[in-house]
Amino acid sequence: MDGDVPLIDVETAAGAIAEDATVLTSGFGSVGYPKEIPLALADSDRDLRLTIVHSGNVGDEIDVDLVESGAIERRFSYQSTRVARSATNRREIAFSDRNASSIGDEVQYGGMVDADVAVVEAVAVGEGWFVPSTSIGQVPAFVDAADELLIELNHRQPLGLQSIHDIYRPESPPNRTPIPLTGPGDRIGESYVEFDPEKLIGVVETDRPDSTYTFRDPTDDDLAIAANLRSFLSEEMERSAVFDDAIHLQFGVGSLGNALMGELQELDFGDRDVVYYGELIQDGLLDMIDSGRLESASATSMAFTAEGQRRLFDDIDRYAEDIVLRPADVANHPGLIDQFGVVGVNSAIEFDIYGNVNSTHIGGKRMVNGVGGSADYNRNSLISVCALPSKLAGKDISRVVPMTFHVDHTEHDIDVFVTEQGVADVRGCSPVERAERIIENCAHPSFKPKLQSYLDDVRSQSNHIPHDVERAATWHDN
């Protein structure tokens, strides 16, 4: 740490934040977020009415303690705990969901909020610069946009994290030029974020650990979905010349994502380079790196279990040869997803027979988490895959429905649907043809006859997309 950087205690830092401030925080994938300052705010006896903005999910210090304190009046753009979810659905917190790729621009140029202070976590800091910790997200944009800056210097995180960072900030519109990234493993930026030293209020030292993930063991359905995806990818690599030399993959975070990556260990890629270009790196990617199956991995955050994080920290110099962390407006950039011809694989709550996908709201009304970066990849990938079990585990609820009453990704965004039952490739299909393929290949046997009966009854309508809305709504009564 540079000797000219002002050290302050956490109470002073929290007291410097106005009661009605708009606070931009680091954090993505429940790691790399500030911890001590949010806890001090939660313990404050002031009448706080904060607007909190972050570009991905954060840990319990913000998503539980600060929420339960009643200090948050409004927040963007993701929430990931039962406490935050309940407060959102009770509308005690005004919540606005945003795509991960665009929130930096929206804050800095779009007038979404008037940013007062950025609160970020770092592993090193000096006059006019700091090195982020385990995630980047929209930190460069947030630091530029905020009037003031508070930094938590976390001594629990290794300084070696600087070796995996590639901080590149796109230029401002309308003079923005193409991002000069020719390969996901390339580096085009620096290991640190620059800031105006006049913005810095002070630095708070901490050694509080991140909230790591806990993934369940893959279920039989997870493994069947993974096997079906493997078969599809094998056929697709043989069918399309675009995959002759390399295949670029992205997976949503979670136990299913880890199962999918485990299954890819068995896929014969031949001489092709296998590259990960996504937003989150999880344990399964470390396994692929260790086995020599992965050329490189590019993301904006690391969603590791405690064991996965230990593996990385213990051997960070070796992993830095293959792992790159970038700002979310690069990692999730639509042009780069298109440029690399990514095969994007993401899950959801449900999808309907016409190919519309709901990622965020149960029954069309109850918020679960947020859309995150799934829309960035679903809309811009060369092949967009929605993968999920055909019914809710342990319950008699189909996740393939006649009509979803909340749509995050339209039928124009998704190419392929995969469940444990099979694969529905709906590219080039009309709506009714999509419905036929989805019901036949993806629906659970317990619900397939009922879905087929619905389609048979409505297809006589003179409509491009035939529906019985009242009948479709009964599927959501549970």
Please write out the topology.
Layout: H1 10-15, E1 22-25, H2 36-43, E2 50-53, H3 60-68, E3 72-76, H4 82-89, E4 94-95, H5 103-108, E5 117-126, E6 129-132, H6 139-145, E7 148-154, E8 193-194, E9 200-206, H7 220-239, E10 246-251, H8 255-264, E11 273-277, E12 280-282, H9 283-290, E13 296-299, E14 301-303, H10 306-314, H11 316-319, E15 323-325, H12 328-331, H13 334-339, E16 343-346, E17 350-352, E18 357-358, E19 361-362, E20 366-367, H14 374-380, E21 383-387, E22 400-401, E23 416-419, E24 422-425, H15 431-442, H16 448-458, H17 469-473
Parallel strand pairs: 1-2, 1-5, 2-3, 3-4, 5-7, 7-9, 10-11, 10-16, 11-13, 12-14, 13-15, 16-21, 17-22, 21-23
Antiparallel strand pairs: 5-6, 6-8, 17-18, 19-20, 23-24
Helix pairs in contact: 2-3, 3-4, 7-8, 8-9, 15-16
